[in-house]
Amino acid sequence: MANVKVVKKNNGGTIAQNKRARHDYFIEEKFEAGLSLQGWEVKSLRAGRMSLVESYVIFKNSEAYLFGAQIQPLLSASTHVVPEATRSRKLLLSRKEIERLMGAVNQKGYSCVPLACYWKGHLVKLEIALVKGKQLHDKRASEKDRDWKRDKARLFHK
């Protein structure tokens, strides 16, 4: 019998990123959460039809939900399912992580926002972060630092 090489397909791609969150907030701590999805949503995610802009995490009855994220349904979605693009989706986190996030949001004045959505094998994962808001002068300083790093790299790599 001949030796057969089996090559696994890499499904580790980014579906969507929330670039605005990195601009508007100081990121304190990151968490990885699973997403509870319906079938049509997974098909839309494979087509890359997700937006995390203006989305955030809410806590209700000791559970975490992704609120405001949009998953646009495909035109070929099933006829017996009514797709809702902006429904709240349950986040799959451990009890300890939920309690830690809830405590920080309720007591310390933090917010919880999604940073990225990506494939981890055949599962959809969401990177969420505990964040604090930036003031206008903080945003300007961050932009100035980013510009300086880019210019410095350009000068030293010539």
UniProtKB/TrEMBL annotation:
<dbReference type="GO" id="GO:0070929">
    <property type="term" value="P:trans-translation"/>
</dbReference>
<keyword id="KW-0694">RNA-binding</keyword>
<dbReference type="InterPro" id="IPR000037">
    <property type="entry name" value="SsrA-bd_prot"/>
</dbReference>
<dbReference type="GO" id="GO:0005829">
    <property type="term" value="C:cytosol"/>
</dbReference>
<dbReference type="InterPro" id="IPR023620">
    <property type="entry name" value="SmpB"/>
</dbReference>
<keyword id="KW-0963">Cytoplasm</keyword>
<protein>
    <recommendedName>
        <fullName>SsrA-binding protein</fullName>
    </recommendedName>
</protein>
<comment type="similarity">
    <text>Belongs to the SmpB family.</text>
</comment>
<dbReference type="Pfam" id="PF01668">
    <property type="entry name" value="SmpB"/>
</dbReference>
<dbReference type="GO" id="GO:0003723">
    <property type="term" value="F:RNA binding"/>
</dbReference>
<dbReference type="GO" id="GO:0070930">
    <property type="term" value="P:trans-translation-dependent protein tagging"/>
</dbReference>
<comment type="function">
    <text>Required for rescue of stalled ribosomes mediated by trans-translation. Binds to transfer-messenger RNA (tmRNA), required for stable association of tmRNA with ribosomes. tmRNA and SmpB together mimic tRNA shape, replacing the anticodon stem-loop with SmpB. tmRNA is encoded by the ssrA gene; the 2 termini fold to resemble tRNA(Ala) and it encodes a 'tag peptide', a short internal open reading frame. During trans-translation Ala-aminoacylated tmRNA acts like a tRNA, entering the A-site of stalled ribosomes, displacing the stalled mRNA.</text>
</comment>
<dbReference type="InterPro" id="IPR020081">
    <property type="entry name" value="SsrA-bd_prot_CS"/>
</dbReference>
